[in-house]
Specification:
By secondary structure, this protein is of the alpha+beta class. It has eight helices and eight strands, in the order ααααααββααββββββ.
């Protein structure tokens, strides 16, 4: 509608000015003269035309300002959602680490139990050996065996038997000592594993609190943004009604507006046909390429672009998309159905670069650091572009496809689309993966 506001100002002035110019006619029989407006009437008519044209211009500017407010609100909401999604990633990592530490603690406890059982077994063997030696009496002890020998050969046999008994005692004693050392080591490992599990669990609890807070903030921001957008939409509808009233004052201008709307519809239909053709061609190339090869390789940039282009028209879903295609997303606080399937900005990049065997992080601000930085002046097709408000983290990512165009999943209510590169909020560096 902003284009309509700009388009109607000059034609409105021209049409209404011409309408105030008298037209002379000729007739064989002189007719009764028509009413002749005075100079004052003509001046008042020109003043009215100028005032109407100025009002149309003012309303068009106001519409443009409201559109900009809508874009700014969408950018702010995207930042809060990125915060929540990043917190969810941290939570998942902390929970995985806590689970691994708990398994390690369980294994350490099992090793402690085994060491305790080994000590009990070694003690039982020692007790049996001591009891057996005691039951044999002093004559069968080491000194008794030697003192009661009947001859040299008997003395040697008795000495060897005594050595055997002593060796058994040393073996049992060694087993007991090793079991004690094993239990001490197992106890230490169990304590360390338990401490690690507790630390990991505390980290997971902290991450859970952060994720809950971020999601609550995102939900509150989404509801607040929805209320603001509703207010702006109502204001815009009021301004549009005023603009329509101004345009309707002149029948010729209404016809011009109809022609302009028809032109817009024709342009939109042509763009839709072109987009459908581009999507079909890209999908055909993706299907022909088959399974994704290893990282990079010949034609990798075109595969990445084709994967993205094959999703033209797929709806935006916050948190949606992965390396295999569109998915359900995260509840956005705006009452959207939970079974919606599509992409958000970073999810589209995951799917596109998966075609070249490249695995990207989930969140756009992390994707910024995934590859090589290049200045915006040197970008080429396949590079990722990023946006952030001053003093705020990155909230959006798109892919440059050449000729000043990019492909993106923009925001809730829109779909994957090709558009000109926006410069407002665009970071001075892009990220190159290939």
């Amino acid at each position: 509608m902003r284009a309509l506001g700009r388009a109607v100002v000059a034609p409105l002035v021209a049409v209404l000015l011409l309408a105030g110019t008298p037209v002379a006619t000729a007739d064989p029989v002189p007719p009764t003269p028509p009413p002749n407006p005075t100079d004052g009437q003509l001046s008042a008519s020109r003043d009215a035309v100028g005032a109407r044209a100025a009002e149309v211009g003012r309303l068009s500017t106001q519409l443009a300002d409201l559109d900009q407010q809508t874009d700014d609100l969408q950018a702010a909401l995207a930042t809060r959602r990125e915060d929540a999604e990043a917190a969810l990633v941290d939570l998942a990592a902390a929970q995985d680490a806590a689970a691994a530490a708990a398994r390690k603690a369980d294994l350490a406890r099992a090793e402690t139990d085994a060491a305790t059982a080994a000590i009990d077994a070694a003690r039982a063997r020692m007790d049996d050996l001591l009891a057996h030696t005691y039951e044999q009496g002093p004559d069968l002890g080491p000194l008794g065996l030697l003192s009661t020998a009947t001859g040299p050969d008997d003395l040697i046999d008795r000495a060897q038997y005594g050595n055997l008994i002593a060796e058994q005692q040393r073996s049992v004693q060694d087993s007991l000592e090793k079991a004690r050392i094993g239990k001490a080591n197992a106890d230490a490992a169990a304590r360390a594993a338990l401490d690690e599990a507790r630390r990991r669990q505390a980290a997971a609890a902290t991450a859970k609190t952060a994720a809950d807070g971020a999601l609550a903030a995102a939900d509150a921001a989404a509801r607040a943004q929805a209320r603001q957008l509703a207010a702006i939409a109502a204001q815009r509808a009021q301004v549009q009604a005023q603009l329509d009233a101004a345009v309707s004052a002149d029948a010729g201008l209404r016809a011009q507006r109809d022609r302009f709307r028809q032109w817009q519809a024709d342009q939109a239909a042509a763009q839709a046909r072109a987009q459908q053709a581009e999507r079909a061609a890209a999908a055909q190339r993706v299907a022909a390429a088959g399974a994704a090869p290893g990282r990079g390789g010949p034609g990798a940039i075109q595969r990445v672009i084709d994967r993205a282009m094959s999703q033209l028209g797929v709806q935006y879903v916050w948190g949606g998309g992965n390396g295999r295609g569109p998915t359900t997303g995260i509840p956005d606080g705006l009452g959207s159905p939970l079974d919606r399937i599509g992409f958000d900005c970073s999810g589209l990049m995951l799917y596109a670069f998966g075609g070249a065997g490249i695995s990207l992080p989930r969140v756009s601000r992390n994707q910024f650091n995934a590859g090589t930085k290049v200045p915006i002046s040197d970008i080429r097709p396949g590079d990722m572009l990023f946006w952030a408000d001053p003093g705020e983290p990155i909230h959006h990512v798109a892919m440059y496809i050449g000729n000043g165009n990019m492909i993106e999943a923009p925001y809730t209510g829109a779909s994957v689309r090709v558009t000109k590169v926006r410069t407002k909020g665009l970071l001075p560096e892009a990220t190159r993966m290939l």
